[in-house]
Amino acid sequence: MKLYVSIDMEGITGLVDQSNVFLQEANYERSRRIMTKEANAVITAALKSRCTEVVVNDSHSSMNNLLVEDLHPEAVLISGSVKPYSMVQGLDDSFAGAMFIGYHSRAGMPGVMSHAMTFGVRNMYINDVAVGELGFNAYVAGYYEVPILLVAGDDYTTTEATSLIPNITTAIVKKAISRSAAQTLTPKKAEQLLQEKVEIAIQNKHLVNPLLPPTQPTLRIEFNNYGQAEWANLMPGTKIEPNSTTVSFQAKDILEAYQAMLVMTELAMRTTFC
């Protein structure tokens, strides 16, 4: 069995605010070590459960957070940016399953450091389904008929996962008190929990269906202000919906919608407020 692991940072054990997840901040280096250990717990359990190959995609910010020198030697690491498919780079139909580790809840919802790709996004939709990073990435996996077997993060993230994917296994490594505070497991306890949950997720693989995306989906992104919508609208094929900050794009498939989302959110980040 070939396993794909996308690992973000905001949902990692003990990390609660920007001081933990931004490159320039004081706690970032410690966070990298915790993140790498959580990745290793997942890889170790997957190999123990007879996975023949584990591909890990570093999926946070600049996407070079994992300490490759400390990563399990049997893993294959995808690191760095720019990646054409960002958090799901390298995912294809050769994988029997995927796991999302260190994930967070979508923009506009409760949960530790909740957001969607950038802090300029208020909501994202595929047709009429509200999605965050978790849901969008799961749709891309579904395009390749790859089921999401495990999601790990805070309690709001796991609730979001179960609402989208019936029978999915989840691992709650912290419970949100606010968007920047949590009741959290210690790293060692979280690593133990993740190993247990990985084994259960692989055992229950047959119970989980891929999250199949709609054909020719409409992507809609609601931005926080009109300037962000104007920048996103510079991408050909987009339009700003009347009297709103929502920009829509008609895609030929979920892969095109995903890349459109990447372009639109990157453009929107150029907005200034002076």
From TrEMBL:
Positions annotated to bind Zn(2+) 1: D8, E10
Binding site for Zn(2+) 2: D8, H60, H104, E133
GO molecular function, one term: metal ion binding
Pfam families from the UniProt entry: Peptidase_M55 (PF04951)
Keyword Protease: yes
Active site annotation, chain numbering: H115
Keyword Zinc: yes
Assigned keywords, A-Z: Aminopeptidase, Hydrolase, Metal-binding, Protease, Zinc
Name of the protein in question: Aminopeptidase
